[in-house]
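1st attempt posting a full record on here, be nice pls
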Amino acid sequence: MSHDPTMRTVSGMRPTGPLHLGHYFGALKNWVPMQDSMSAFFFVADLHALTSDYADTSRLRGFVHELVLDWLAAGLDPEKSVIFQQSKVHEHAELGLLLGMITPVSWLERNPTYKEQQQEITNKDLGNYGFLGYPVLMAADILLYRPKWVPVGQDQLPHLELTREIARRFNGFYGSVFPEPEARLTPAARCPGLDGRKMSKSYGNGIYLRDTMDDIVPKVRGMFTDPARLRKSDPGNPDVCNLFPYHILLSSPEECAEIREGCTKATLGCVECKKIFMRNLETFLEPLHQRRATYTPAQIDEILADGDKRARVEAKATMDIVREAMHL
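the predicted structure (as tokens):
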């Protein structure tokens, strides 16, 4: 890649199943243009998947392939960015261990996600060291590539700030090794699930990037809209409708204005509104499905093997500096 090496970004996703529209509009849509303007590293965070899904790893390898295929379908290009698997670059685990030596436990216990997920996820035992310490591994994932930018949503800012604090503490002990990465805020994209809750694999309420229209039509037909609008003759409120946020993402501003007017004046029914959504969704998904069809499992393996090799070069260079600074 011929980008300025100081303009580097790094990000990853856990391989826990197929990606849905929320993943695309919340992250991938912003990743794709980054690979054209800066040196971009995107990793499959399979070690992070173990923090909560350690009890059954039988589907992990399949999920890794599925995740990369979703990325390629969405427009990530292995010629423009480094696409790799976290566990294949052993320096992630090594730096995670070393950063763990200097990270106070109190910093991890105050992590808001740690508390929230322990309360929300009751079907798994999250009292493990790996789950408590995952922000340290996340800091290692980022700092290993010494990026200038990390693409994050507003809700992920505390995680990045913790990475910056760990970098600051390391530099205080051992000298200026790590630049403190800056947030590249991604625009908020509201993607509610089909049932009104957050779109989530665990709720089974999502529209997936790999879904065909045969999969999608029954999902959208059963989708919640404005709960107060029982008949077409009832005026609706797009601001409480589960479907309207998708028109904002997929329809033109002019079409959104027409839909809002038709809904509030009761001239456009929910059935017709869903048909417009499905038409625009099909247009959006078509190029993704075409790109997906061009890759074989062997090609995915090749892309990962090449990305792993390229990531290791950068990771080893950083660890040489870290080891020297720590007198190891």
